[in-house]
User: Fold this.
Amino acid sequence: MPAGPLPRAAAGPPPRAAAGETRYGSRVPGLRSGYAPDMTTTGLLADAQTLLPEIVEIRRRIHRRPELALQLPETQQLIVDELEKLGLTPRRGTTTTSVTAVIGADRAGPATVLRADMDALPLTERTEVDFASEIEGRMHACGHDTHVAMLLGGARLLVERHGDLQGPVILMFQPGEEGFHGARFMLEDGLLDGLDPERTRGFAIHITTRYPSGEIHLRPGPLLVSADNFKITVHGRGGHASAPHVAADPIVVAAEIVTTLQTAVTREVNVFDPAVVTVAHLVAGTTHNIIPETAFLEGTYRTLSDERREATGKLIRRVVDGVSAAHGLTAEIEFVPVYPVTLNDATVTDRVRDIATGLVGEQDVVTMPAPDMGAEDWSYVLQKIPGMMAFLGARPGDADPATYGDNHSDRVIFEEAPMAVGVALYAQVALDLWSEA
Assistant:
């Protein structure tokens, strides 16, 4: 590993802005945010801004070639190539296409894990940006392409500041966040092997259009909820629709299960330890005059504590069994665990808040009043080591938040200028997280 700064590759001319877009803004007619980071507070942010053309180019390469789930060979190779340019030795995952690398392996102090997820979503892009997905039915609609690019940029800044690191920095490029437990696979592959949990901290960024460009949103404690899915099959007895009394109608029971679940949540769940239960898919029958044999339902439930997560599963089972039995029918239920609660460590969060404030100013660092009801497999890592996740806003300033595309929308466009903030934040956290620990 080089001891001194590496020469930067020539960035080349920045992408030419189309009509109605900022230099790295959104290709949306008539939309101009004019966002640019304030670089007066720190040289690190200024350096990140200088890197932005290269970071944007990497992000757009990934965006054009989205890959799904746990096997992302093109994305993995791009990451490996970029890390090798920095003089690092990337390590490929054994069960997935993950990538890890260490900066400052020779540093004796505590360790910091920096994470970026890599996978895209199975939907067709409708943004009309000139770097849109080239693969039908795949899109980087959650911003993971920006995460990869920002962490690669952060790695560049950290390699140049190798001598300022207190301890090793582990770069974690993770596939399979979108429901495929990629972080858990990386832990099983040895992500934290050899690290003392008491002397290791974790940090991740998630970009979002819910917040204005450049804002950093965070909170201690629960940041994101646990997520679990359920599948219910109600077994009845088929017959003619004109004679329901000689059949056993599973549709009526399925409908009652849906309404009873909603009532049970409002009557039995403490609003200060909430749960959301949603039945989002119901299928039964084939035509207007046949009572079917079965009805199928599936949905999800979200909670903010392990205790509520366990209790909600028991509540769903009790309602399903009870309603079915009351009508003389039976039902099968299958639970599909997704992700645990994402818990931000309070001490780490306070330190990151101070770092972020020093980076972008107090006006752009926001403490969230409540958790987000999404879920994340970064939660697996935070069960092993103290750490946190912060949100980075990427919604153009002139955009209407009520109508602008949200994460997971086929029309979402993340403004690219705030990526400089993400690059700098990754690096600054790695440099300063332990300075007051």
